[in-house]
Design goal:
The chain crosses the membrane at residues 12-36, 58-91. The chain is mainly α. The chain has helices at 3-15, 25-37, 42-68, 73-97. It is 65% helix and 0% strand. The radius of gyration is 15 Å and the shape is elongated.
Length: 120
């Protein structure tokens, strides 16, 4: 694996932090990098797919937490989800720098590996 491939894997993960500045940036940032580089680098295909699955899952969890704010528990859940997002993304960045694709916990697999993909 080349350093460029690792750097692009890291960029996919780091791009997800754009969601703290831009609405839907946590999905759009990794999506843009993933779509541009997934055919060129198998590692980016894997990192991007894992990151996007997590961020889409997280969006669903945040939406449910927003509804639960009317009962009070949603505030606590939102705080826990924000902490989990930051911690898991930092772990994914570290793993990408090591050349390993991180499987995020609490993830629903919306985007499946493409047929013939050699990186799981």
């Amino acid at each position: 694996m080349t350093q460029d491939e690792k750097n692009m894997g890291i960029l996919v993960q780091v791009a997800s932090f754009s969601g703290y500045l831009v609405p839907f940036g946590s999905i759009l940032g990794p999506l843009i990098v993933w779509l541009m580089k997934r055919d060129e680098f198998p590692f980016v295909e894997s990192c991007g797919r894992n990151c996007l699955n997590f961020k889409i899952s997280l969006f669903i969890y945040v939406s449910i937490s927003a509804i639960l704010m009317f009962v009070g528990i949603g505030f606590i859940l939102l705080g826990l989800l924000a902490i989990a997002d930051i911690v898991f993304t930092i772990i994914a960045i570290i793993k990408a720098s090591e050349g390993k694709s991180y499987q995020y916990p609490l993830t629903i697999n919306f985007i499946k590996p493409r047929a013939g993909s050699d990186v799981a």
